[in-house]
Amino acid sequence: MQTFAVRPFQADDSAAGDGVLATAFAGADAAFPEAHDARTLGLARLAQTGHRVLVAEDAAGLAGVVRWREEEGLAWFDLLAAARAGAGPVLVRAVERAAQDGGLRLVRTRVPAGSRCAGFLGWRGYVPVAREAGAAGRAPRLVLEKRLPLLTVREQRRSDADAIAALTGEDPWPFTQGQRPGWFVLADGERVAGAVAVREASRGTGEARGPWLAPAYRGRGLEAWMLERAALYAETNGMVTVAAAASAALDALRRELEERRWFREGQGAAAFYRKQLTGRPLAEREPWA
Predict the structure, then answer these.
(1) For 45-92, how does the pLDDT look when each residue is reduced to its tens digit (9 = 90+)?
(2) For residues 109 and 138, is the Cβ–Cβ distance under 8 A?
(3) Of 198, 196, 199, whose CA–CA distance to 211 is shortest?
(4) For the segment 243-282, what is each residue's pLDDT rounded down to a tens digit?
(5) Where are the domains of the chain?
(6) Could you tell me the pLDDT band of residue 220, with boundaries at 50, 70 and 90?
(7) Residue 241: strand, helix, or coil
(8) How far apart are CA 105 and CA 99, in angstroms?
(9) Please, are residues 88 and 82 in contact by the beta-carbon 8 Å criterion?
(10) Are the C-beta atoms of 265 and 272 separated by less than 8 Å?
(11) pLDDT band at 33 (very low <50, low <70, confident <90, very high)
């Protein structure tokens, strides 16, 4: 099975990306007017002016492109083009993940009515929600939409026991007995895709464990979001600082973590990320605080 990697468009991709667009949309200007405009400008110009363009590549090189944007709480994509079989579905899924990571629930695109594109996306859960009349010389188009599962970090439930055990190696039995304080899961709809835990290691000091993520959810920056949920729990429970052991996944998010006031300290295997909280240990609070 062919494997594709998806990443943001780079300047070096211009020639190959423009070639993929030219081949995929040749003779289809009436059906895909946005593709005509994109070919005229070139992908490099689009990327320079703030358009989000993703590319799929394999061992043979660039295999597909797609453009997506957020508009009034919706994710829209277009310019979906593939030079090799399999690149298209991978790019559609990448757009869905990017939308989901940004808290968006709906993804939309426009395709010609009755086209193969409509069938291709229909198999992937997209349904028509509107029909747009074509302008002069242009075919009518369908607006297709897919509702994404809610991606959220929530408190652990008994039913999450097996999934947490598979992610972390923990004994599942304690989780089946009820909610364990300080344990949270990353839920993709009903699926548990990650876990994070926090506890008070010493008076006023919180220790975060994880985050642990299923393979398909790694590399998406979700660890920072999960650590923030752990920090909120720590602060709510009177801790004044919280720390998490450094890892390659967290180091890749160092800039984002620093923006959220998680700062790297220590060296080597003893390195960790620490966040100073605003609370005070419970023992120091007034009864009404």
Answers:
(1) 999 988 999 999 999 999 999 999 999 889 999 999 999 999 999 999
(2) no
(3) 196
(4) 999 999 999 999 999 999 999 999 988 999 999 997 554 4
(5) 5-147, 151-284
(6) confident
(7) strand
(8) 7
(9) yes
(10) yes
(11) confident
User: CA 276, CA 287: separation in Å to the nearest integer?
Assistant: 23
The CATH number of 151-284 is: 3.40.630.30
Q: How many angstroms separate the CA atoms of 8 and 56, rounded?
A: 9
Measured CA to CA, the distance from residue 79 to residue 68 in angstroms comes to: 9
d(CA 53, CA 250): 25
Question: Please, what is the Cα angle at 126 between 125 and 129, to 5 degrees?
Answer: 140
Query: Is 5-147 CATH 3.40.640.10?
Result: no
pLDDT for position 137: 58
Tell me the Ramachandran region of residue 189: left when phi exceeds 0, alpha when psi lies from -120 to 50, beta otherwise: left
Structure tokens at 196: 């994070």
pTM comes to 0.68
194: which strand partners?
A: 186, 213
Given a cut of 60, whether residue 13 has pLDDT beyond it is yes
Look at residue 148 and tell me whether its pLDDT is greater than 60: yes
User: Other C-beta atoms within 10 Å of 240: how many?
Assistant: 17
CA-based nearest residue to 220, from 246, 259, 194, 190 = 194
Q: Which two tokens stand for residue 156?
A: 């652990």
| Structure tokens given for 66 | 């797609």
> Angle CA(83)–CA(66)–CA(112) in degrees, nearest 5?
85
Distance CA 141, CA 55 (A): 25
39 in Cβ contact with 22 (< 8 Å)? yes
Q: Do domains 5-147 and 151-284 have the same CATH topology?
A: yes
